[in-house]
Amino acid sequence: MKVVLLAGGLGTRLREETEFKPKPMVEVGGKPILWHIMKTYAHYGYKEFVVCLGYRGDVIKNYFLNYEMRANDFTLELGTGKVQVHSKHDETSWTITFAETGLNAMTGSRVAQAEKYVDGDLFMVTYGDGVSNVDIDALVNFHKSHGKIGTVTGVLPPSRFGELETEGSVVKSFAEKPQMDKGGLINGGYFVFNKEFFKYLSNDESCIMERKPLEQLAQDGELCIFEHQGFWQCMDTYRDFEYLNGLWKDGKADWKVW
Fold first, then answer.
1. Which of 32, 197, 207, 246 is the one with CA 20 to 30 A from 84?
2. Residue 31 domain boundaries
3. How confident is the model at residue 9 (pLDDT cuts 50, 70, 90)?
4. Which one is predicted more confidently, 170 or 63?
């Protein structure tokens, strides 16, 4: 099953990091967040990716084109240009299709343009800026069980503020960015679709997947939700960037399932 990754947005709310590179290439623990997402899928055996490129897509291409040299020791023979790679990494079986989907294309347009690279009856879609410990096997099995066209993973949003538990004027506990336990679930990405979903999409760059396509899919009774109660965090702001890197540094990266 192909995994379609949306990696073409401008990332304007993270301008400190995205002025010269796309948001999916912003690093967490020394690796692009896109790599972390791909590692999660690969852990469950899904290693065929279609990366939908837009803003600074060349940065993503160059990173993976030079991945062998980045990930391994190697010897270069000057004059001939021969390279001998001395070690292996865990990503040797990944295959990645880089699809140029336009600088200004919206999410629905990008997925529609990836259709020609999706050759199975089912495919997955997610955003290139959110990490989670969602059980991909359970997600896929759930999708297959209900027989509808689409499945969206619903997550509990983390609070953007520290939560204080007090007793009088004394703080009894402090939780930075706790997961909210009240309110509705939000779209956490990690979609599974049947190929029929392409009929709801358009190549027109104004097509936003989360608007008319998914709204219509829901109205048609063809969209189910897979509830994920575990870790989920997107990287929208510089604060999110610092938070995720802090978790990685402290050995608390709950999304690291590999």
1. 32
2. 2-155+184-249
3. confident
4. 63
CA-wise closest residue to 153 among 189, 107, 197: 189
Are the CB atoms for 149 and 217 separated by under 8 Å? yes
Residue 169 lies in a domain: no
The closest alpha carbon to 174, from 161, 156, 158, belongs to 161
Among all chains, which residue has been given the structure tokens 């540094």? 249
Environment class of residue 130 by beta-carbon count within 10 Å: exposed (0-12), middle (13-18) or buried (19+)? buried
Q: Are 106 and 61 in contact (CB under 8 A)?
A: no
Helix, strand, coil share of the chain (percent; to 5): 30, 30, 40
The predicted-structure confidence for 83-99, as pLDDT tens digits, reads as follows 998 877 888 899 999 99
The answer on pLDDT for 131 being more than 90 is yes
**28 with 122: CB under 8 angstroms?**
no
Distance CA 89, CA 141 (A): 29
- Residue identified by tokens 């990494």 is 89
User: Is position 141 within any domain?
Assistant: yes
Non-local CB neighbours of 49 within 8 Å, separated by 6+ positions: 2, 3, 4, 5, 38, 41, 94, 95, 96, 97
Q: What is the CATH number of the domain that holds 144?
A: 3.90.550.10
pLDDT tens string 20-52: 889 999 999 999 999 999 999 999 999 999 999
The count of structural domains within the chain is 1
**Would 149 be classed as within a structural domain?**
yes
255 located within any domain? no
At residue 178, the pLDDT reads 60
Give the residue, 166 or 103, on which the prediction is more confident. Answer: 103
